[in-house]
Design brief:
999 residues, mainly alpha, two-stranded antiparallel sheet, 45 helices, 10% strand, globular, SF3b_su1-like, ARM-like, mRNA splicing, SF3B1, mRNA processing
């Protein structure tokens, strides 16, 4: 359905929420509430079903007008939508974002709707999707900040002792989020009251669960409040209700896990009840108590850990035979934690733990449940770290020939992890034979080709190293036989195994065997399955890496032409392995292939720059560098420059990186002339590509850039004066890398010159240009010193316009962070005033004492000096005059003037000389003339009668806030001055300074 107006399509499920928009009605006839409701509906429909630009605009509008719409109308429409059963994940995410935004705006207006929001949002906290849980936590956190702790507690308090466990669970999680938002201390009094509630055990259960969820959510942030949290819940270990005792033990386990490896002192009060508990409880209660002790033992000192481990191990061994799956997982976890503790002796583990452990856990049933499988493998590896590899491998090696494949995989994974951690040093020759025999059997008897077997085989062979030499013919025979298998998965796995064991074959000096495998793999390059072909190329790459170019069979000159057509394959695995192999040949054996073949490969490589996978693009641009080194840069460069004209941006960027790598490989002077020539092409993409290439090039070549900075400066000037933003952005990025590279090589003049072109971009608003500008300034700071940047920045730090000041302060702060020490000598000297002294006598004395100046001959000749001041303006913006107390009393005044005549015929005022001196500015006025020709004043009759006048002024203050002195034009001309110093020596001494300080 399509509503009228600029609205998106409506789904059938949306009808019940947005049906009013389908009715064509004159909105002016509606009441204000209905108009508001209709407006919110339109915005929500745009957010839910609209295009990204439409959604963005609607989201901004609903956020800005949130207070105008009001909390009621907004939540009355958003919350039913969120509870819709047909809501998709993406739509839910968008509506959650709406709530998140409007909560900030509504602030305390949201209080009446807290319960309604929580009913909708709390279920997200136990959602299967991780991102849904994060969104739920974020909304409740913002809600708590907006509504306040009192409102949140009063709203959720009734749900704490709800009979439904689902409601209690979500409430506990919501309280944990509130604690993380508003701080644990603010919630502690409430938790103390709830956990000791006598009214119902459900309230106590929920209160303790809140503590558990706080520990899970906040991790080590609970450490400052650990003792208080433990004291709040410790009584739950002896509660009359079984469920309360269980959740208390689980909460203690969560607190101990969050506090690891600190905080054992806080748990002193609960050790005794826990210890009693593991002797009294059975089933789920015992599992929880064991879990708590398992997390507490790693916090203890080695001596105590050893004692408690021996005590708890008796119960653990008894529970090895428990049929309960949950109990098995917890027992395995606790055994792992106990064995990892420092104080436990290997001998004790060998004698007391290993026999029952292998008897009860190492069976086929454990391999079927994935969680048990993972826990058993981890625990066994941890035990092996304590007692050694041979002890564990010897017990499980025969199980590699077990009839159950899943069990064989579990054994193989365990052996792989043990060998990877501990190596094969303590494995004797008999066990070595059993091991090779077992892994060959397990590898060959696979029905589903799994990476577990492949990893295990590779790890064991690599761990044994030279000791595997007698078994290599048998292993290679198995590989060759499996390369002929009709199943693609089997062939792929065989090829993958070659790449894993190629290094060991080299160590064992089996080059003839590797050569034979190389020929076989070469014959299989016509493989039709791309996954298998990718593995075959990976195996060839592994052999080429270790055998070298000269001994490789087939010869490189035959191998490379077969690889060229494979580069056209669009499968990512094939592309990645093929380009890696071609790059390795180009790097080490380019002379075995003709230049024409390399050029063919260059053209094929251009297509690989379009690949989606970054690793392929990176390998491709590196290969361009190798090829350029092999056949010379000119042909390769011509191909790459031509590719700058394509429309696709990713392709052009990769091309610029390849050009930079060619420059780094073959020296920049081979590339820069071609790039500068290409910049003359009046096409935007090409010019931007050239600038990008220069940016990458200066980044790669570093200090070599000092030889090319003057040659490239005119091109950069031109680009910095271009109207196109991208031109200037890319050029500033280039200058950043250039300035960093030439630091300390005396190129400051060129950098200052370029800075004058970069600086006008200071007021750009585009985020990318701003970032490039700040990067360039950072580069200049390093390249030519912070002092010069400071002189530029000082001009605008105190500008009257705030936006101008902000930009300049941003520059200043950036320079300050990077080089505050080198800015100190460059700060302007501020003269002392009546109140403040801005100089440092000690610093100046130190400078004068350590300064020696000797001048043999100085001549200064100035021919003419003229100083002209055309205009001087002095403005005083505000003057306040306050008089403390003035009293004027006039009782009676009478003034009568009958007739007054004043005639002035001529007045002359002559001022010969006036001097105004302002510190360093002198204003001299030689002659001022004032002539008044005629003034007539006639007063016929004036009467002034004042009976009584009283004037009282209590206080008078005079304040001048702002005085401006503007000098528009000053000219200084020096006609002729001669200063000659024939010979002088000046040595400043510390003695006078010391005497001054002493006095």
């Amino acid at each position: 359905m399509q509503p009228k107006g600029n609205l998106p399509m409506m789904k059938p499920d949306d009808m019940q929420y947005f049906d009013k928009l389908l009715v064509d009605i004159d909105e002016e006839t509606l009441s204000p509430e209905e108009q508001k409701e209709r407006k919110i509906m339109k915005l929500l429909l745009k957010i839910k079903n609209g295009t990204p630009p439409m959604r963005k605009a609607a989201l901004r509008q609903i956020t800005d007008k949130a207070r105008e719409f009001g909390a009621g109308p907004l939540f009355n429409q958003i919350l039913p939508l969120l509870m819709s059963p047909t809501l998709e994940d993406q739509e839910r995410h968008l509506l959650v974002k709406v709530i998140d935004r409007i909560l900030y705006k509504l602030d305390d207006l949201v209080r009446p709707y807290v319960h309604k929001i929580l009913v909708v949002i709390e279920p997200l906290l136990i959602d299967e999707d991780y991102y849904a849980r994060v969104e739920g936590r974020e909304i409740i956190s913002n809600l708590a900040k907006a509504a306040g702790l009192a409102t949140m507690i009063s709203t959720m308090r009734p749900d704490i002792d709800n009979m439904d466990e689902y409601v209690r669970n979500t409430t506990a999680r919501a309280f944990a989020v509130v604690a993380s938002a508003l701080g644990i201390p603010s919630l502690l009094p409430f938790l103390k009251a709830v956990c000791k509630s006598k009214k119902s055990w459900q309230a106590r259960h929920t209160g303790i669960k809140i503590v558990q969820q706080i520990a899970i959510l906040m991790g080590c942030a609970i450490l400052p409040h650990l003792k208080n949290l433990v004291e709040i819940i410790e009584h739950g270990l002896v509660d009359e209700q079984q469920k309360v005792r269980t959740i208390t033990a689980l909460a203690l386990a969560a607190l101990a896990e969050a506090a690891t490896p600190y905080g054992i002192e806080s748990f002193d009060s609960v050790l005794k009840p826990l210890w009693k508990g593991i002797r009294q409880h059975r089933g789920k209660g015992l599992a929880a108590f064991l879990k708590a002790i398992g997390y507490l033992i790693p916090l203890m000192d080695a001596e105590y850990a050893n004692y408690y481990t021996r005590e708890v191990m008796l119960i653990l061994i008894r529970e090895f035979q428990s049929p309960d799956e949950e109990m098995k997982k917890i027992v395995l976890k606790v055994v792992k934690q106990c064995c990892a503790t420092d104080g436990v002796e290997p001998q004790y583990i060998k004698e007391e733990i290993l026999p029952p452990f292998f008897k009860h856990f190492w069976n086929q049933r454990m391999a079927l449940d994935r969680r048990n499988y993972r826990q058993l493998v981890d625990t066994t590896v941890e035990i092996a770290n304590k007692v050694g590899a041979a002890e564990i491998v010897g017990r499980v090696v025969d199980d590699l020939k077990d009839e159950a494949e899943q069990y064989r995989k579990m054994v193989m994974e365990t052996i792989e992890k043990i060998m990877a951690n501990l190596g094969a040093a303590d494995i004797d020759s008999r066990l070595e034979e059993q091991l090779i025999d077992g892994i060959l059997y397990a590898f060959q008897e696979q029905t589903t080709e799994d990476v577990v077997m492949l990893n295990g085989f590779g790890t064991v062979v690599n761990a044994l190293g030279k000791r595997v030499k007698p078994y290599l013919p048998q292993i290679c025979g198995t590989i060759l036989w499996r390369l002929n298998n009709k199943s693609a998965k089997v062939r792929q796995q065989a090829a993958d195994l070659i790449s894993r064991i190629a290094i060991v074959m080299k160590t064992c000096q089996e080059e003839r065997l590797m050569g034979h495998l190389g020929v076989v793999l070469y014959e299989y390059l016509g493989e039709e399955y791309p996954e298998v072909l990718g593995s075959i190329l990976g195996a060839l790459k592994g052999i080429v890496n270790v055998i070298g170019m000269t001994k490789m069979t087939p010869p490189i000159k035959d191998l490379l032409p077969r690889l060229t057509p494979i580069l056209k394959n669009r499968h990512e695995k094939v592309q990645e392995n093929c380009i890696d192999l071609v790059g390795r040949i180009a790097d080490r054996g380019a002379e075995y292939v003709s230049a024409r073949e390399w050029m063919r490969i260059c053209f094929e490589l251009l297509e690989l720059l379009k690949a989606h996978k970054k690793a392929i693009r990176r390998a491709t641009v590196n290969t361009f560098g190798y090829i350029a080194k092999a056949i010379g840069p000119h042909d390769v460069l011509a191909t790459l420059l031509n590719n700058l004209k394509v429309q696709e941006r990713q392709n052009r960027v990769c091309t610029t990186v390849a050009i930079a790598i060619v420059a780094e490989t073959c020296s920049p002077f081979t590339v820069i002339p071609a790039l500068m020539n290409e910049y003359r092409v009046p096409e935007l993409n090409v010019q931007n590509g050239v600038l990008k290439s220069l940016s990458f090039m200066f980044e790669y070549i570093g200090e070599m850039g000092k030889d090319y900075i003057y040659a490239i400066a005119p091109l950069l000037e031109d680009a910095l004066m271009d109207r196109d933003l991208v031109h200037r952005q890319t050029t500033m990025s280039t200058i950043q890398h250039m300035a960093l590279g030439v630091y300390g090589f005396g190129c400051e003049d060129a950098l200052v010159h370029l800075l004058n072109y970069v600086w006008p971009n200071i007021f750009e608003t585009s985020p990318h240009v701003v970032q490039a500008f700040m990067g360039a300034i950072e580069g200049f700071r390093v390249g030519m010193g912070a002092a010069k940047i400071l002189q530029y920045a000082l001009q605008g730090l105190f500008h009257p316009a705030r936006k101008v000041r902000d930009v300049y302060w941003k520059v200043y702060n950036t320079v300050y962070i990077g080089a505050q020490d080198s800015m100190i000598p460059s700060y302007p000297r501020v003269p002392n005033d009546v109140k403040n002294s801005y100089g440092s006598a000690e610093g100046e004395g130190f400078l004068s004492s350590s300064c020696k100046l000797r001048v043999k001959k100085v001549e200064l000749r100035v021919k003419q000096v003229e100083f002209r001041v055309t205009k001087v303006e002095l403005r005083v913006t505000k003057v306040e005059l306050r008089v403390t107390k003035v009293e004027l009393r006039v009782t009676k005044v009478e003034l009568r003037v009958t007739k007054v005549e004043l005639r002035v015929t001529k007045v002359e005022l002559r001022v010969r000389k006036v001097e105004l001196r302002v510190t360093k500015v002198e204003l001299r006025v030689t002659k001022v003339e004032l002539r008044v020709t005629k003034v007539e004043l006639r007063v016929t009759k004036v009467e002034l009668r004042v009976r009584k006048v009283e004037l009282r002024v209590t206080k008078v203050e005079l304040r001048v806030t702002k005085v401006e002195l503007r000098v528009t034009k000053v000219e200084l001309r020096v006609t002729k001055v001669e200063l000659r110093v024939t010979k002088s020596s000046y040595e400043s001494r510390v003695a006078s300074y010391k005497s001054r300080v002493a006095s």
